[in-house]
Amino acid sequence: MSDQVEWRVRDHLRPHRRRLAAVLVLTIVSSALMLAQPMLLSRLVGTLTDAGAAVLPPAALLVAAALGGALLGAWRTYLLQSTGEEFILGLRKALYRRLLRLRAAEYDERSSGDLLSRLGTDTTVLRSALTSGMFSLVSAGLTIAGAVVLMAYISPVLFGAAMASLLIGAAVVFSMGGAVRRASTQAQTNVGLMTVAMERALSAVRTIRACEGTEREVAELDSAATRARDSGVRIAALQAMASPAIATSAQIGLMLVLVLGGYRVAAGHLELGDLAAFMMYMFMLITPVVQAASGYTQVQAGLAALDRVREILKLPEEAADEPGTGGGPIAPATPAAPLIEFASVTLTYPNGVTALRDVDLAIAAGSRVAIVGLSGSGKSTVLSLIERFYTADSGTVRFRGHDVAELPRSSIRSQIAYVEQDAPLIAGTIARNLRLGRPDAAAERMAAALRGAGLDEFAESGGEVGGRSVGDGGALLSGGQRQRLTWARALLMERPLLVLDEPTASVDARTEGLLQDALDNVPSGTTTIVVAHRLATVMGADRIIVMDQGRVVDSGTHEELLDRNDLYRELASRQMLAADAVRG
Question: Boundaries of each ABC transporter domain copy (predicted)?
Fold first, then answer.
């Protein structure tokens, strides 16, 4: 376990130390009042056998102890539960802040469903372990300790008989701790896998229905849910074994005490009031022992959940900028420095795939550049390096002549308007999506950006600009509208570098034409980089860079590349043939 992560967990508990101290004090006092009741009962029984003794004082003390213990217990429970909620709130904040700041490679390698299960399911299990399991252990431990001392004081002989039986049951319970923790880890993992399967199905629900694959997905979810159920049943079986083991040992101990205690009272070695007090302590001991067994299994489940939470908290974040740096314009290192420059850049992804091999390229400020090539040739990886989602294994990426590794990420990203390939939208309104990159954008600017992207129907819909809901992931918009809305968001940002990754991959010819119009109308001096499969999108670019198998193999204008580059000519030929087929 990482010391850094341990410190983080203690960090979340530290703000609540006073309330936790209050809970501990209330637990001690309420346990003391509970432990006092058998002794007060013994005194009450003694007064009943003594004709001259006053009954009211010990009876009043017994009632006061019972009521005081109940009231303090209720207050303690409230403080503990509310403190547990505050602790889990802090832990969840730490989790989702870490989840949103992980390195890009983590999102590529991990499923979002599993990451979400750490935030939901695991923190819920951890809260239960803290507020119920840990409390049960502490409260039961204090009660057991007090009862044991007083029982030994009243009658060492009866105490020895009772403990011999109870210790056997306790040994059985604690021997199962490792199994419970392992089963809990597996159960939480299986719940995470079920969440992954459900997320996958929901994200492609229309495709699944169109392919008549609903029943197959249901079958896969049934399998995942069954595995989660089986893991839960294994935990339930272990927990079910714990309580009977303790209860049975307690019953055996109770019978031994009854037989032996009755004999000692009859023989005159023990007072009846002392036997009554001992029996009450014995009954009082049974419930905390069972509570401790249950609390122990809950704590084991909580530790398994904490392990999964720690796994996320230990993942490296994207390196943060130094305080007070970033966000402003980047001055050119030299007057002749290109806006973007790659010098012998190589990048291998964590899965071992080499995406770029000794790439050299330069993009002048204010130019319109396209990057084309077959799938997997490294086009989108170039954009990821410009955005600093990844860092090159070797070589240098420069922005205005500066090594990007030495620039704050926020400074670089504040210069770039980025349109992703899948046109991701967040649930909410059009305005919320537009303001993602410019939170202070006025309605007039949003309307202008929407018109610039060919979304006049949203800019002139009457009422509030951008007030229409896009649905989950843009489900209430057409594919073309989703794509154009991401263009509008980029236009609204008004950054000096506009980067578009496959902006026309899933749109019709009319939408593609609207993109051309939008690109023609970007402010003068804006540098545009377009990654595209469809050459019609980039034919008018100042320069087209051709990539193949992670290398730059050529660059030039459309006409130049048609004359001299076989790969580009093949790409153009295939697309023209496809167009001819459509026209035919």
Answer: 340-574
